[in-house]
Amino acid sequence: MSNPFDLAGRVGVVTGANTGLGQAIAVALAEAGADIAAVGRTAPSETARAVEATGRKFLAIDADLASAAPAAHIVDTVCERLGRLDILVNNAGIIRRADALEFSEADWDAVMNVNLKSAFFLAQAAARRMVESGLGGKIINIASMLSFQGGIRVASYTASKSGLAGLTKLLANEWAPKHINVNAIAPGYFATGNTEALRKDEVRNRDILARIPAGRWGVPADLGGAAVFLASRASDYVHGAVLPVDGGWLAR
């Protein structure tokens, strides 16, 4: 029996893959056999070296996901350069912090545009191509613990990640009959640029670690297995799931 986690011959698109979680996901998919297209505003040089070291093809696409405008171009470019599109990982995201009483419209719009609006329209563009090809595909949204909880001082981030969890379920309902699996991964507290402020806050850092049964912050590589599972044939009957990878945070 063939390995159901094997991604050989597949092409995956990962947004925000230049560092952190996106980079780790891109490398994990490549290690499982997929060619990778990385989408973002910053040159993903380190990610390119890591992917190419696995023997897989790598394509960098410069795009600003602050608007939905690049979505069709991204999908067209991937299909033209790499021949197909099988996997989309909507990982790109930003965060803004301020008390809700002081939160600005600009910070609200900036986060919602990247984290939710662009994710939807990129999924739409990818799904159209997946339907056209007749091969279906896998779409993985990167949600958050704040898809389940409220948090503090990150109003637009919480709204966007809660919206992304709901959108994952809606798209799964609509696209499952079209052989497209739409699921999400909800990372717990990971050591990335987005959490640097929390890790530097002695009190918040201590309180967060005290609640994580695993006793540590996650590292980006901890997401690789979940991403490969949801991108592979092993998850063919998984639709609309939001999979926490959180060291046990939600179980506490």
Question: Quick gist of this model?
Answer:
This protein is an alpha/beta fold. The protein is built from 8 helices and 7 strands; from the N terminus they run βαβαβαβαβαβαααβ. The chain is 42% helix and 15% strand.
Describe the protein's architecture and organization:
It is a single chain. The protein has 252 residues and is of the alpha/beta class. The chain has one domain: Rossmann fold (3-Layer(aba) Sandwich). The protein is built from eight helices and seven strands, in the order E-H-E-H-E-H-E-H-E-H-E-H-H-H-E. It has helices at residues 20-31, 45-52, 71-82, 105-133, 155-175, 196-200, 202-211, 224-231, and strands at 11-15, 35-40, 58-62, 87-90, 137-142, 180-187, 242-245. A seven-stranded parallel β-sheet has the order 3-2-1-4-5-6-7, with helices on both faces. Strand 2, helix 2 and strand 3 (58-62) form a beta-alpha-beta unit. It is globular. The N and C termini lie far apart (38 Å). The mean pLDDT is 96.
CATH architecture: 3-Layer(aba) Sandwich
Strand adjacency order, main sheet: 3-2-1-4-5-6-7
- SS-based structural class? alpha/beta
SSE order, one letter for each helix or strand: EHEHEHEHEHEHHHE
